[in-house]
Specification:
It holds the Pfam family Sec6. This protein is an all-alpha fold. It has helices spanning 3-9, 22-40, 50-141, 143-155, 159-179, 191-207, 209-215, 217-231, 244-261, 272-294, 304-325, 331-344, 371-403, 422-438, 442-476, 484-501, 516-534, 537-548, 559-580, 589-613, 623-633, 640-650, 656-666, 671-683. Helix 4 packs antiparallel against helix 5 and helix 21 packs antiparallel against helix 22.
């Protein structure tokens, strides 16, 4: 296209709107020029150069106009070129639109033609399928026979041959499936059950790995090889993977667990020890078999020895958990299980044997018994042992108590001291249980030690109760013991032997203060035996007094009455002095009852003695013992004020110190009750004049009163 035509196609440029800043720019330019001119021509000598300045500015103005014209001309030429290119692009777009319309029509025609060819395409596909089937037909006809043959191989345990035959059938099925475009023929329906039968045969062989490794290792190797080869096979069919390798590993574990921990093998009651002993021998032997025979039949990544060790450990752990869910174990079973699990299992005789490699290490696995299991077994063991110990100690006590009524004196040792095997039996029972418990753990030893001290304390309390009954029945005459005092002395020897030997129950690491309650109970029991023994002195006193006074009948009245009265008062004063010494402190209602009964018995004994000697009852002093009995036998300590006031009325010479000492005998009077009882001496009515009364308490030295800040009497009072 020539320039003339090009110019004709280009649109004319229209004058644009006036520039809004033009006037301001001109003003600024004129101002700047005037400022410059005034600066240049301010001095007269410079006016001569005016023509030069004018010509220079004209040249500069022409140069600027030429440059502006060139720029504007270039811009106009670019605009013209752009307008021409846009016109050409518009023509090209119109041409492309026309061409696309033509192509759309052609495509519509081709689609209609393709629809007419669809039946032909289907016929072609059918032809290809028929052609493929015609080629595979000889092989398809042999499928039923191949399936039967494979089944026979599986039954004959020829696993490798059976797997090869199965894979050939599966490859034929895949070829047929691909040839038929994803269509599976009914002739291959039996391949699924056939493969499952082979998988079960592989599992059965793996489950009997221990037996096969010794008798038929080739079968075990074949089963493992089938599982490994199948793990690397892929199929184009959309089927779930058989994962025979995992099934083989599970079968190895389940077979091993069934051999050693199957339900029929669980021990019954009382058979736990034999069962654990059998496991102690069988498990290391099983690991040795795995390392020597089974591991060579399996790939290295099976880690057979580690698999065997972990399987045996987890199976044993699960089995023990089942045993613990059964009804409560006996003491022997609980001890056996604790000792076996904590010491034997990981010891050198079993899993810690140096003959086993590092793969058999199970020390980092979960322990056989959890902390809760150990706590349960220890509690069970201690409870059962405690019941057994209590029964044995009760039998020993019953046998000892039965001997107290024998016609002959207690047995004596070679030195002539009263002797009984009971202390040795008691300590042996307790010490043996503590020693046995120390073989398991320190915590069990501490539990059994606490139980032993508890049972020893209970035994001492039972012994004390039996002694109280024995003394009470003897004093009341309900069961007179032929050798009362000798058996009390023998009991004192028993408790002394226990006191001197009880330290054998003190294991290492246990605070010595744990023995303090038992030692205090032994000390108190010895004091009780001493009190019961010494109380028999009154019988001897009465006999000696009777012999001493047997010639008093030769003295005439009233001198004989005065002599007998002084003798009776002397005995009573000695009795009161013994009471005031504070040697007797009752520790409970039973002891207060026994002491009160003793006072009644002694008062009656003295009364009968001096009545028999001829002393009139009205002048006897023994009734003071009955008054003290009432004070001691009072059930409610808050009523002690009334009893003290009554005692003051009967015996005006009783002092606060005497009353305080008598209140100490009870052992249950608080500070407030003591103050209230003592205040009744001052607040109560004054006693009547002592007409015909003789002094008693004023002749008995009162014990030194304890400071008001002291504590009540303790066990050593």
């Amino acid at each position: 296209m020539d320039s003339a035509a090009k110019d004709e196609m280009q649109p004319a440029l229209l004058p644009g709107p006036e520039w809004p800043e033009q006037e301001r720019a001109e003003r600024l330019a004129r101002g700047a020029a005037l400022k410059w001119a005034s600066g240049i021509f301010y001095r007269p000598e410079q006016l001569a150069r005016l023509s030069q300045y004018r010509s220079r500015e004209v040249q500069r103005t022409c140069s600027l106009e030429a440059r502006i014209k060139s720029v504007v001309q270039s811009y106009l030429e670019g605009v013209k070129t752009g307008m021409w290119q846009l016109a050409r692009a518009l023509e090209a777009v119109h041409g492309a639109r026309v061409a696309l319309g033509q192509a759309r029509g052609l495509l519509r025609g081709m689609a209609e033609a393709a629809q007419t060819l669809e039946p032909l395409r289907e016929r072609v596909a059918q032809h290809k399928q028929l052609q493929a089937l015609s080629q595979l037909l000889p092989r398809l006809r042999a499928v039923p026979a191949a399936v039967a043959h494979t089944q026979t191989l599986i039954g004959a345990q020829q696993l490798l041959e059976a797997y090869v035959s199965l894979r050939e059938l599966e490859q034929l099925r895949e070829e047929t499936w691909e040839a038929l475009g994803g269509l599976e023929l009914p002739i291959f329906e039996r391949l699924g059950p056939l493969a499952e039968a082979l998988g079960q045969a592989v599992e059965a062989a793996a489950g009997a790995a221990g037996k096969l490794a010794r008798e038929d290792p080739a079968l075990l190797v074949a089963a493992v090889r089938v599982a490994e080869v199948d793990a690397g096979c892929t199929t184009s069919l959309e089927q779930a993977p058989r994962d025979w390798r995992q099934r083989c590993l599970r079968a190895l574990q389940e077979g091993l667990e069934q051999i050693h921990f199957g339900t029929p093998l669980l021990p019954g009651p009382g058979a736990l020890e034999g069962w654990l002993e059998a496991l102690r021998v069988a498990l290391p032997a099983e690991l040795a078999t795995a390392e020597a025979l089974i591991a060579p039949c399996c790939p290295p990544h099976y880690k057979v020895v580690q698999l065997w060790a972990h399987t045996l450990h987890s199976g044993l752990r699960h089995c023990l958990q089942q045993l613990l869910e059964e009804p409560e174990l006996g003491a022997a079973d609980a001890f056996t299980l604790l000792h076996w699990a904590l010491h034997v299992y990981l010891g050198p005789e079993m899993m810690g044997s140096l003959e086993l490699g590092p793969e058999a290490d199970v020390s980092q696995l979960e322990p056989l018994l959890t902390l809760e299991n150990i706590e349960h077994l220890e509690t069970t063991f201690v409870a059962k042992v405690q019941a057994s110990v209590a029964q044995w100690l009760q039998k020993a006590l019953d046998g000892e108590v039965a001997e107290w009524s024998r016609e002959q004196e207690p047995d004596r040792d070679t030195s002539g001291f009263y002797h009984s095997p009971m202390p040795a039996i008691v300590l042996q029972i307790l010490e043996e249980n503590i020693r046995v418990a120390s073989r398991v753990s320190e915590s069990l030893q501490q539990r059994v030690h606490g139980m032993a001290l508890s049972e020893l304390g209970a035994f001492l309390r039972s012994f004390s109760d039996a002694l109280i009954r024995f003394s009470r029945d003897h004093l009341r005459g309900e069961a007179m013991a032929p050798h009362y005092v000798p058996y009390l002395l023998a009991s004192l020897n028993h408790q002394s032997a226990l006191s001197s030997s009880v330290s054998v129950l003190q294991p290492d690491g246990v605070a010595s203060g744990a023995m303090a309650p038992v030692e205090a109970a032994l000390d108190e029991l010895q004091r009780r035996i001493c009190r019961d023994t010494v109380s028999e002195v009154l019988d001897d006193v009465c006999e000696r007094t009777a012999r001493f006074c047997q010639d008093f009948w030769r003295v005439r009245n009233p001198a004989v009455q005065l002599l007998l009265a002084e003798a009776e008062r002397t005995v009573v004063l000695q009795y009161l002095r013994a009471l005031m010494q504070g040697r007797l402190v009752c520790r409970g209602a039973d002891e207060r009852t026994q002491a009160a009964e003793r006072l009644r018995h002694d008062a009656a004994q003295l009364r009968e003695l001096f009545l028999g000697l001829g002393l009139e009852e009205s002048v006897q002093c023994a009734p003071v013992l009955l008054a003290l009995r009432e004070l001691l036998n009072l059930r409610d300590p808050t009523l002690l004020g009334l009893e003290v006031a009554g005692l003051r009325q009967q015996f005006p010479d009783v002092s606060e110190d005497h009353v305080s000492a008598l209140l100490d005998l009870r052992g249950d009077v608080s500070r407030e009750q003591r103050l209230a009882a003592l205040s009744s001496l001052q607040a109560g009515p004054q006693p009547s004049p002592a007409v015909g009364r003789r002094a008693l308490f004023s002749l008995v030295p009162a014990p030194t009163p304890a400071p008001s800040s002291c504590l009540p009497s303790g066990p050593c009072a």
